[in-house]
Structure formats: structure tokens, C-alpha cells
UniProtKB/TrEMBL annotation:
Further remarks about this protein from its record: A single active site specifically recognizes both ATP and CTP and is responsible for their addition.
InterPro entries associated with the record: CCA_bact (IPR012006), HD_domain (IPR006674), NT_sf (IPR043519), PolA_pol_head_dom (IPR002646), PolyA_RNA-bd (IPR032828), tRNA_CCA-adding_enzyme (IPR050124)
Residues reported to bind CTP: 8, 11, 91, 137, 140
Protein's UniProt name: Multifunctional CCA protein
Any GO BP annotation: RNA repair
Cofactor comment text: Magnesium is required for nucleotidyltransferase activity. Nickel for phosphatase activity.
PANTHER family with a match to the protein in the record: MULTIFUNCTIONAL CCA PROTEIN
EC number(s) given by UniProt: 2.7.7.72, 3.1.3.-, 3.1.4.-
Keywords: ATP-binding, Hydrolase, Magnesium, Metal-binding, Multifunctional enzyme, Nickel, Nucleotide-binding, Nucleotidyltransferase, RNA repair, RNA-binding, Transferase, tRNA processing
Gene3D superfamilies listed in its UniProt record: Beta Polymerase, domain 2 (3.30.460.10), cca-adding enzyme, domain 2 (1.10.3090.10)
Cofactor(s) recorded in Swiss-Prot or TrEMBL: Mg(2+); Ni(2+)
PROSITE patterns cross-referenced by the UniProt entry: HD
Length: 408
């Protein structure tokens, strides 16, 4: 048996990036031999094992055969006769299909190194089409590597279009879509993922609510980029810049303006009430992908409240209090800085406005902290009980917001 490093670890080292998890492929072995050597099998469907000491993933060299449409229709063929080249051939992208042995010797039958040099994401073989998750992986890798100059090879884009047209995306399990989407939102340029999904037609199938934003105009005085889809892409990248790796903020950015796709044509380019009309499509997205509760709750807050935060300085203290209360921001204080960041990303995610300051963000944090400093304990100390505590708290917090507002 011989083990080779493959996939992300080799790719990232060649790109000069710090290594993440290390995946191995094992050639010339059998499951029985792996177990005898002390490897721990993981899962029953995949010939994958954990190294007894390092716990790194070791997969037997394998080929895959498609048995049914969609993600579940796979059988694996793994035996000692499957070669390293056979295994590399069934992988997704050339840059992921490079193997490295213990001596650092590379096996690169598909030109992965050349594509790393040329900054191209290119599929290895037509077998790419057998796994629709790879469409999402392409999007995620582009979100990660576009800042390094990567683009998708035209023939890979064509293949992805064909896969979407053949209905491959319709069979993706929601959990897998969410998993990959969330990872894309953690990357430095999530807009590249959304744009690629749109280009190949997958966005219209997976997130029609987002796809529908393209071509919808906004008022150029507020939105020099005009197109709502372009705006959302800019907000996504601004969110990734303000809080790198924060998928929760990314999801809020992605969904904050869904209501704009529902504006009646006659009202364009104004979008009066989009913060309310956006809630229904947002909930549809969250239900479809079983989006975690805090993602759904936070995205709904950002959708409903972003206009209020933008004009925070004009709001009366009780209105600010009630806004924070609607966010449950006294019991879940971490929500308020996130709301402030999402609104900042919205404001700066506009053409030519990227470097503008966002004073409402800092103001919201200050007012929240001031209000938060008043606790129920103070009311009880003042001899209050029952509903009187809540009333006192509200008044005291409003007063705190008022005095903080006028502090300078
Ligand atoms: N649907 C998939 C999933 C994985 N792979 C192959 O398995 C490797 C490891 O997969 P994974 O760890 O998911 O991706 P990495 O490329 O290692 O990227 P990351 O840094 O995100 O782990 C990939 O490089 C690729 O060769 C594939 O071909 N098709
Ligand atoms: Mg990996």
C-alpha cells in the first residue's frame, strides 16, 4: 500500500496558502488490510478510514459509478487494482487532482499545476457531471479563489449549464445545498459564487428569490449600481470584508432585499415596503434549506429593520428602544452588533460608496450599550414587582437612550 496527499492540502501548498485539513488517498490496499493496519472505518458507504495516530482521512483509491440521478445515486468501486491515476480522474477540478507522495513527488496527470499557474478552475473529465454537488463546489471555490485571480474555464461553465439544463440540480438534497452555500458565504468573495450559480442557471432553480433580483432597478441617487442583483453581490462582498468568515452576516446580506423582486412594475425604481414584502420569500428560502433558527431569525431582523437603522439618528428614543426590543436585543445582545454590520454592508455595498463611513452603526451600538446597562435588578432594587418591572425598565432604558443620544 502507498499513501499520497491529495486535494486541498496539495492545492493550497502550491498556491502558497496555509494548509487546512489533509486528505490522503491509499493505493493498492483493501478495507480489510486498512483495518488490520489499525485504520478506523468511517461511514459504511465510503471506503474512507481515519489514520490510527493522526486521525487524518485516508480514502482507498476508487472509481465512482452513477446509478441514479442526484447525489444519492452512487456506487463506489474500490479495490487494490484501482490506480492513483484512476482515482485522480474521478475528481472534480484539475487543481484538486494532484497527488503528492512522501518524498514530495507530484503526480499531476490533468495539468493541475498549469491551471494553478493560470488561475483556472477546470473540470477533470466529463465524469464531473455525475455529481451535481460539484456545481456548488465550483461556486464555493470561486468565492474563495477569485481574489487570487481565478476564473472558471469556459468548457467547465458549459458543462455546468448542461447539468442544470438536464435537471441535475433538482435532485440535490437541501442539507447539501445549505452546507455548500454556507461555506461559500464564509469565503472572501461570496459574490463570485452567486454570480457563477446565476451564469450556469443553478441560481434560478436553487434560490429563485435571489435570481429574481437581477434586472430589477433601484433609484440611482441611492444606488448608483442600479441593478438590485448587483447591489446584493456588492453587499455580500462588503459583509465578507467587514467580518471575514461570518456566514451568518453573509446570509443576512444575501437575503436583506428579497422584497425588491416583488415591487409592482409601476412603482419601480422605488421599493416602498420592500422590508415587509421581503419576509415571505426569506421564510421560503429558510424552510427550503432548513436554515438554522438563528440564521433565519437574524436575516428576518435585517430584512425588516435595515431602513430603520439607516435613519437611526432621526428616530425618537422610544422608537430606538422598540427596535432593539423587536430584535430581542436585550436578551440576545450579540444580535445588535450583527445588525449594525449588516446595515453597514448594505449602505457601503453600493457603487462608489464603498469607503463611506456609516455613523448609524456606531450610534446603534452606543445606544444599545446604554440601554442594556439598565437591568431588571435596578427595578427590583427600587421595590417594584410584577408588570411594573417591565414598565419601569422600558422607561428607564428609553431615558438612557435619550441621554446617550445627547451626550455629544
Ligand atoms: N464532490 C467532490 C468532493 C470532493 N472531491 C475531491 O476530494 C478532495 C477533498 O475534498 P474536500 O476536502 O471537500 O475539498 P478540498 O479540495 O480538500 O478543499 P478544502 O480546502 O475546502 O477542504 C477534493 O480536492 C477533490 O479532489 C471531488 O472530486 N468531488
Ligand atoms: Mg479537504
Amino acid at each position: 500500500m502507498k499513501a499520497y496527499r491529495v486535494g486541498g492540502a496539495v492545492r493550497d501548498r502550491l498556491l502558497g496558502l496555509p494548509g487546512g485539513d489533509r486528505d490522503w488517498v491509499v493505493v493498492g490496499s483493501t478495507p480489510e488490510e486498512m483495518v488490520r493496519a489499525g485504520f478506523l472505518p468511517v461511514g459504511k458507504d465510503f471506503p474512507v478510514f481515519l489514520h490510527p495516530a493522526t486521525k487524518e482521512e485516508h480514502a482507498l483509491a476508487r472509481t465512482e459509478r452513477k446509478t441514479a440521478p442526484g447525489y444519492r445515486g452512487f456506487t463506489f468501486h474500490a479495490d487494490a487494482s484501482v490506480t492513483l491515476e484512476d482515482d485522480l480522474a474521478r475528481r472534480d477540478f484539475t487543481i484538486n487532482a494532484i497527488a503528492e507522495d512522501d518524498e514530495g513527488v507530484l503526480t499531476d496527470p490533468f495539468g493541475g499545476r498549469a491551471d494553478i499557474e493560470a488561475r483556472v478552475l477546470r473540470h477533470v473529465s466529463p465524469a464531473f457531471a455525475e455529481d451535481p454537488v460539484r456545481i456548488l463546489r465550483a461556486a464555493r471555490f470561486l468565492a474563495r479563489f477569485a481574489p487570487l485571480g481565478f476564473t472558471v474555464a469556459p468548457e467547465t461553465l458549459a458543462l455546468m449549464r448542461g447539468m442544470v439544463a438536464a435537471g441535475e440540480v433538482d435532485h440535490l438534497v437541501p442539507e447539501r445545498v445549505w452546507q455548500e452555500l454556507k461555506k461559500a458565504l464564509e469565503m472572501p468573495r461570496p459574490s463570485a459564487a452567486i454570480a457563477l450559480l446565476r451564469e450556469c442557471g443553478a441560481l434560478a432553480k436553487l434560490l429563485p428569490e435571489v435570481d429574481a433580483l437581477y434586472g430589477v432597478p433601484q433609484r440611482p441617487e441611492y444606488h448608483p449600481e442600479v441593478d438590485t442583483g448587483v447591489h446584493v453581490q456588492m453587499v455580500l462582498d462588503m459583509a465578507a470584508r467587514l467580518a471575514p468568515g461570518d456566514a451568518l452576516l453573509g446570509f443576512c446580506a444575501l437575503t436583506h432585499d428579497l422584497g425588491k423582486a416583488l415591487t409592482p412594475k409601476a412603482e419601480l425604481p422605488k421599493h416602498i415596503g420592500h422590508e415587509h414584502s421581503g419576509v415571505r420569500p426569506l421564510r421560503a428560502v429558510c424552510a427550503r434549506y432548513k436554515v438554522p433558527a438563528e440564521f433565519a431569525a437574524m436575516a428576518e431582523i435585517v430584512c425588516r429593520e435595515h431602513l430603520n437603522v439607516h435613519r437611526l439618528a432621526e428616530l425618537r428614543p422610544e422608537t430606538v428602544h422598540d427596535l432593539i426590543a423587536r430584535c430581542d436585543g436585550f436578551r440576545k445582545p450579540e444580535r445588535i452588533p450583527l445588525l449594525a454590520l449588516a446595515c453597514e454592508a448594505d449602505k457601503r455595498g453600493r457603487l462608489g460608496r464603498e469607503e463611506e463611513p456609516y455613523p448609524p452603526g456606531a450610534l446603534l451600538l452606543r445606544l444599545h450599550v446604554a440601554a442594556q446597562a439598565i437591568s431588571a435588578g435596578h427595578a427590583v432594587a427600587n421595590g417594584l414587582q410584577g408588570p411594573a418591572v417591565g414598565e419601569w425598565l422600558r422607561k428607564a432604558r428609553i431615558a438612557a437612550i435619550e441621554s446617550e443620544k445627547h451626550r455629544d
